[in-house]
């Protein structure tokens, strides 16, 4: 389920939510531009309310929760309506909670040892974070040798200029990024520009 979810999403807008109404407007814009999936990070107090509102208004949208750091957040995000969970890293407690709940978690990794630890716990899809500073495309190419069956969603440092090169790698299922949901664009209510960037990302993915 996780691998197919990521592979068919291709580009995942990573949204740090603000007010619920503004976030809903943003999500409507992305959906109308052809984005099939998005990630709401749990970095704001409004995050769970935003997930509930999006799930209620746009039930067909594939909705992920990001920055899931604890078992409690995992449970809260699932209860709010998230269908996929992404974390910037992994702890034994978080991995155990995901396994026990049968939750679709994409743990974060930045090294081969972290990939091995995740595989040992039954995970084979990972978020490479922070992708650019951890080694970027060179690291992903290196990891493909010892881990040919592992899929990655690189996030952190990806933009409109480099995401296509990441997606071209055989072990990359999906790319996460915030260039099409830049905070300055949202605050300026430049919805047309956001829609253009989103539709461009989908066309070029």
From TrEMBL:
<dbReference type="InterPro" id="IPR000887">
    <property type="entry name" value="Aldlse_KDPG_KHG"/>
</dbReference>
<comment type="similarity">
    <text>Belongs to the KHG/KDPG aldolase family.</text>
</comment>
<keyword id="KW-0704">Schiff base</keyword>
<dbReference type="InterPro" id="IPR031337">
    <property type="entry name" value="KDPG/KHG_AS_1"/>
</dbReference>
<dbReference type="Pfam" id="PF01081">
    <property type="entry name" value="Aldolase"/>
</dbReference>
<keyword id="KW-0456">Lyase</keyword>
<protein>
    <recommendedName>
        <fullName>2-dehydro-3-deoxy-phosphogluconate aldolase</fullName>
        <ecNumber>4.1.2.14</ecNumber>
    </recommendedName>
</protein>
<dbReference type="InterPro" id="IPR031338">
    <property type="entry name" value="KDPG/KHG_AS_2"/>
</dbReference>
<dbReference type="GO" id="GO:0008675">
    <property type="term" value="F:2-dehydro-3-deoxy-phosphogluconate aldolase activity"/>
</dbReference>
<comment type="subunit">
    <text>Homotrimer.</text>
</comment>
<keyword id="KW-0119">Carbohydrate metabolism</keyword>
<dbReference type="InterPro" id="IPR013785">
    <property type="entry name" value="Aldolase_TIM"/>
</dbReference>
<comment type="pathway">
    <text>Carbohydrate acid metabolism; 2-dehydro-3-deoxy-D-gluconate degradation; D-glyceraldehyde 3-phosphate and pyruvate from 2-dehydro-3-deoxy-D-gluconate: step 2/2.</text>
</comment>
């Amino acid at each position: 389920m996780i691998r197919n979810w990521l592979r068919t999403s291709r580009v995942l807008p990573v949204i740090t939510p603000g007010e619920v109404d503004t976030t809903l407007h943003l999500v409507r814009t992305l959906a109308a531009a052809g984005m099939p999936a998005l990630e709401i990070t749990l970095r704001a107090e409004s995050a769970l309310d935003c997930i509930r509102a999006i799930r209620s208004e746009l039930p067909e949208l594939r909705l992920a929760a990001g920055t899931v750091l604890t078992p409690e957040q995992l449970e809260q995000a699932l209860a709010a309506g998230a269908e996929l969970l992404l974390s910037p890293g992994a702890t034994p407690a978080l991995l155990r909670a995901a396994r026990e709940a049968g939750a679709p978690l994409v743990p974060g990794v930045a090294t081969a040892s972290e990939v091995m630890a995740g595989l040992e716990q039954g995970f084979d899809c990972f978020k490479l974070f922070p992708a650019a500073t951890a080694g970027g495309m060179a690291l992903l190419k290196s990891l493909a040798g010892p881990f040919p069956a592992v899929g990655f969603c690189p996030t952190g440092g990806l933009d409109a200029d480099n995401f296509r090169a990441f997606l071209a790698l055989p072990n990359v299922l999906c790319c996460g990024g915030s260039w099409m949901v830049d905070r300055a664009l949202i605050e300026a209510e430049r919805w047309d520009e956001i829609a253009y960037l989103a539709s461009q990302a989908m066309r070029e993915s």
